[in-house]
Amino acid sequence: MPRHVFANSNTLRATWPALAMSLALSLAMSATAPGAHAETSQAPSKEVAALLAQHYSGYAAGSNPKAIFAQTTHANWSNCSANGARCQSRDELVSLLSQGLHKLVPDLKWDILDTLVSGDTVIVRGQGSGTPVDTLFGAPARGKSFQIMSIDIHTLKDGKIVHTHHLEDWVSALAQLTEP
């Protein structure tokens, strides 16, 4: 690909969310069982929107992720990085948040920016933000904040999340935290 395609990072930043949501929806739709037809995407129902709002509140510092995730996810929920090579259980994620990230970024929050639904698949474009009080990914705390995009693909069953694939742009967080 020619280098000039990415020369204007503002253009890339402006178009990335739409491209990411399109790609995520395409991937979700292509995961439909052979022979089955793909459903049209739609906005979430009030029930799904409430479930997601409650679930994402568990990522906020000061929350009780153990109690929140117990209400929003199945007991055997798997939370996998984008390629699926590393999955966490609910207890592992709760520990990571409670014992690590919430202490490191005490004002961490995660906002839902866009949501698409196709059958039992829900795609969320989110934004995480916060100000680390100690070293994060090798970047010393300097009072700087970050805002990053995330794409999450959730599978719902019986009104709860049973599986999640997630991708966060932590490279952007590192770049923001190390800017002069």
CATH architecture: Roll
Q: What share of the residues does DSSP label as strand, in percent? A: 25-35%
What's the number of structural domains? 1
Q: How confident is the prediction overall: mean pLDDT?
A: 83
Anisotropy-based shape? globular
In CATH, the topology is named Nuclear Transport Factor 2, Chain: A
SSE class: alpha+beta
Helix content: 25-40%
What does this structure look like?
With 180 residues, the protein is of the alpha+beta class. It has one domain (41-178): Nuclear Transport Factor 2, Chain: A. It is built from 5 helices and 6 strands. The protein has helices spanning 9-30, 46-57, 65-72, 90-104, 170-178, and strands at residues 73-81, 87-88, 109-118, 121-130, 146-157, 160-168. Strands 2-1-6-5-4-3 form a 6-stranded mixed sheet, with helices on both faces. α2 runs antiparallel to α3 (65-72) and α3 packs antiparallel against α4 (90-104). The longest helix has 22 residues, at 9-30. The protein is globular and about 45 Å long. The two termini are 30 Å apart.
